[in-house]
Amino acid sequence: MRLRNFLYLNTKIVEDYISAIDGYTYDEESQEIASSSENSVNGGLGSKVVSAGGSHNGKQSEEIKRSVKISDAAKFDKIYKYLQSGDEDEQLKYYELLSEDVYNELRRDDFIEVLVTARFSKTKELTDSVQKIADLAMLIQGITDQQVLDKESTEAINGFSALGKMNSGKEISCVFNFDDGKYPLVAYLDENYFRCEQDSFVGQSYMLCKIIRKIPKGQSVKLDEIFDNIKKFPLNREQRRKMPQNMDNPEIIKDVVRGPAMVVVPVAVYQ
């Protein structure tokens, strides 16, 4: 049995898969435990039962019922074993690197287990770093009673803080890379399913995921585009003419994942 330390576990997906496998889902089950006790009665004055050897052994048994909660880890393990069963061609495959042949063979809806290194999008990394600097500056200012940041720095921090708030509550863009940097995996994580501090999430770990689509060579995915929603607005010709020609992210937070790559949905990330 593999023991895992979960960094991320999408329990909604796990519940859906368990329901599909079993036809139902439940959180608790009842267990019956049989226990027995052995009594020894020595032969002698006042004894009701006397054996040839001068003693008698009697056994008593009872059943104890208890209600136990099915853990998320146990549910995940059931899914993992299910994916490993079946025909050899459909069994769960494990990869530490991808070759061109393997990449070409992989298909939409395939499940794979991979050893990868996670990183968040450049936008998230930058906004998180700026927020830490702001918090540190406030701490130092509170201790020394001296202004740490000048006006321009404060304005810049406020701008990045606004950007961070704009992305708050949305799915977190994440890129999972193999050691050789080839065939990166792009995923969008729900922050409700993290099992660790997000700072601890970045690094090498295992991931069980489902392939959503492949990004062929010559195509790319842009992460956390600031003006994506504006681009989708139904504008008339005059409004479109007044819009800036280039509405891509500024260079400092531009984050593009180029194919060949894949977009995946992580079921779990663990060590």
Salient structural properties:
single chain; alpha+beta; five-stranded mixed barrel; 31% helix
Helix tally?
8
Distance between the terminal alpha carbons, to the nearest Å? 14 Å
- Helicity level: 25-40%
Strand order of the largest sheet: 5-6-7-11-8
Gyration radius over CA: 29 Å
Offer a concise description of the structure.
The chain is an alpha+beta fold. The chain contains eight helices and eleven strands.
SSE layout and pairings?
Blueprint: E1 6-9, H1 11-22, E2 28-42, E3 55-69, H2 72-84, E4 93-95, H3 100-105, E5 111-120, H4 122-144, H5 151-167, E6 172-177, E7 185-189, H6 198-201, E8 203-215, E9 220-222, H7 228-231, H8 237-242, E10 256-258, E11 261-270
Parallel strand pairs: 4-5, 7-11
Antiparallel strand pairs: 1-11, 2-3, 5-6, 5-8, 6-7, 8-11, 9-10
Helix pairs in contact: 1-2, 4-5
